[in-house]
Write a structure and sequence with these properties.
Chains A, B: GO terms for molecular function: DNA-binding transcription factor activity; transcription cis-regulatory region binding. The structure is a homodimer of 372-residue chains. By secondary structure, the first copy, chain A, is of the alpha/beta class. Helices cover 40% and strands 13% of the residues of chain A. The longest helix of chain A has 18 residues, at 309-326. Chain A binds a DNA duplex (30 and 30 nucleotides) through residues 18-20, 28-35, 38, 40-44, 47, 62-72.
Chain lengths: 372, 372
DNA sequence: GCAACAGGCACAATCGATTGTGTAAAGTAA
DNA sequence: TTACTTTACACAATCGATTGTGCCTGTTGC
């Protein structure tokens, strides 16, 4: 039986044209080619034109490896994230890639899989790839930060985002989680809630700690009592939240509002409330955190806090580029906190109509269904 | 006011140690170092030990740029995707990165933003970065495939995934969409549906064309009539689907089952059916496609087809690595079609209990809630 | 005892672009 | 005309690792 297919060509492999080829063709030196292409002042306009035209003709593409080797810096940025899944990280990466490519950089992406050892290895790889800068979101298991000193030691720009090393001598971009917790809780209060439970996440993670703090801030501001019995700690899983709310509802004074530090927890709470025959938001208002896709399609849609994923990516790149431009010169580390956006939906705004406005709190942005 | 912070160090920039440094320290040539590190046979075991030890001591990291420049191939794979968002592409990229890094490769990722011009530019960039191979999922606007010839011309391994160039002279990995459509429809028939509508997507996209074909296959197999009036074409948006079902339900002979070519369409259909007071699945069974996150949390959860995103990434990398290993030698192009997985949930299986089994069709895998 | 041989290592060219320095020719000022 | 700039380009070293070739030493074979 004859082979079904023709085989890939391997004889007509076009080797890419190099500056040497152009130089030979024009009878000039490689110096001239290089400088003409980079618009160096010591090359005459006539020669520049000739070189440019020839480069077009042969579709010359500079070898980035050679260039980077010589200059000691590539046009690559390294990203280290715990993983590329869910809603958050992909969106941030999307923002990063978009901003980076706009600035002429490309990104090489690594996953730590929530493992410090892998994170360390990734850093080494990025270093050996001579990236121009590194963006990191810490793995959950990272407690020791010495591996980042090596990066610093090389004078390589380093920016943390979302899961950051705390302190003011690092460059970091985060969401203002405390503000997010505050906005949510304040909104619940404005909706008339007086006994607001908080489904809190693991407190060793700064994000959950901050969301809780924002919750407390809002209570205090409104003169409401802080009641630890209204705060339930869990890993933010849907069923844990349901179970938690179940217990709270069984008490003598059940809550009339729930601020969940995560959308899955909010979902669990919503489902549990409905199982108990409660109306949401009339009997109990529920808000979440993260603006997961599903929050728009539940009945009712869930009020939540958007994390500005794309902006976070953009801001991180901006900061990194500033660092790269500083090029080793003194640079005062910056910590950027992005303002979260409260998205008011019907799980809290019982007076909001479906058209997209909240009657009670017109200052807040109301968001209904989202296009696929 | 004094600056609040100490500035980043710029004097103690540790320049990475090179092979030359090691050679100097040991009083041998760079050749020896290089060959010792790569375990070349012409280096004695004693010397190898000395070199290895010194390399450890100085934490030597080879400069990948230099290596790649010399060898003409880097340890980088290029990915070009339309965008990094939603559920599908991030998951595939996750699979790709995982498989690639396991094989010692890193990935540089580019977004085409559904724009051919950008796609072309991305290819050029990857070429100039001297990647070892390229993985592409086509932009929606790509009709002309000449820019891929340049990649081929260089003899660079190229694999398409999901959105592929059709034909049997390319390397490609896709989901067997036709099988997915077939499985879904067959399942609906097994559930007792006799008048099954199909919410179809744009037919110039092979995925939607194939899903529709699978639907037709199942109908034919079961001896059910093909009724074009039961097939509604749209862009798969939630509201379009709702509107479409609305019309179908108003006819004299409304459908008792709906196979939507996308989950958002299925969701729209589900909501519309419920608005009309119909019970799902008792009055009308509904199934979707893609296994979007939200399909597990609707009431009832939606039966759907999982696209094996991760496996697609892994399979693509495997194919690409095979091509790289072939190293220009004749290679018969391969087209891989992954078997989709039908996830039966309560939107179709009215006889299924919540515990996770389908009474009617025990051969099918029933999937309930999914952990966050 | 001499040749053929293998082991172990160094020399030097190479990948492709960049850049400090050198040097003609052309232009300007006095 | 002399001296001094500018303009426009070439030379050659360099980034760091790789690799074909060559050389020397010690070993084996007969």
């Amino acid at each position: 039986m004859a082979p079904r297919k023709k085989q890939v060509a391997d004889v007509n492999n076009t080797s890419p044209v190099s500056m040497a080829d152009l130089a030979r063709e024009l009878g000039v030196s490689m110096t001239t080619i290089s400088r003409a292409l980079s618009d160096h002042h010591s090359i005459g306009p006539a020669m520049k034109q000739k070189v440019l035209k020839l480069a077009k003709k042969y579709n010359y593409q500079p070898n980035r490896l050679a260039s980077a080797l010589r200059k000691g810096k590539s046009q690559l940025l390294g990203i280290v994230v715990p993983y590329i899944e869910g809603r958050f990280f992909p969106s941030v990466v999307h923002g990063i890639e978009t901003a980076a490519s706009k600035a002429g950089y490309n990104v090489i992406i690594c996953q730590s899989n929530e493992d410090v050892a892998q994170e360390r290895r990734n850093l080494d790889i990025l270093l050996s790839a001579q990236v121009a800068g590194i963006l990191v979101s810490l793995s959950r298991t990272t407690r020791d930060f010495r591996h980042f000193e090596k990066v610093r030691g090389r004078g390589l720009p380093l920016v943390f985002f979302d899961r950051v090393v705390e302190g003011d001598n690092v460059n970091a971009v985060v969401l203002d989680d405390q503000e997010g917790g505050y906005l949510s809780t304040r909104h619940l209060i404005a909706q008339g809630c007086r006994r607001i439970a908080h489904l809190a996440g693991p407190q060793h993670l700064n994000i959950y700690r901050n969301r809780r703090q924002g919750y407390l801030d809002a209570l205090r501001e409104a003169g409401l009592p802080e009641d630890e019995s209204l705060i339930l700690y869990s890993d933010m899983a849907q069923d844990q939240a349901a179970e938690g709310l179940h217990q709270l509802l069984a008490t003598a004074r059940p809550p009339d509002g729930v601020f969940a530090a995560g959308d899955y927890a909010a979902l669990g709470a919503l489902q549990e409330a409905q199982r108990q025959g409660l109306r949401v938001p009339e009997d109990v208002a529920i808000s979440g955190f993260s603006n997961e896709t599903f929050t728009t399609i539940t009945q009712p849609p869930i009020t939540t806090v958007d994390q500005r994923c794309e902006e976070m990516g953009q801001a991180s790149v901006r900061l990194l580029l500033d660092l790269i431009e500083a090029d080793g010169r003194p640079f005062t580390p910056r910590q950027v906190a992005l303002r979260p956006e409260l998205l008011v939906r019907q799980s809290t705004a019982y007076s909001a109509d479906t058209q997209g406005r909240s009657v009670r709190d017109p200052a807040l942005k109301f968001v209904g269904d989202v296009a696929p």
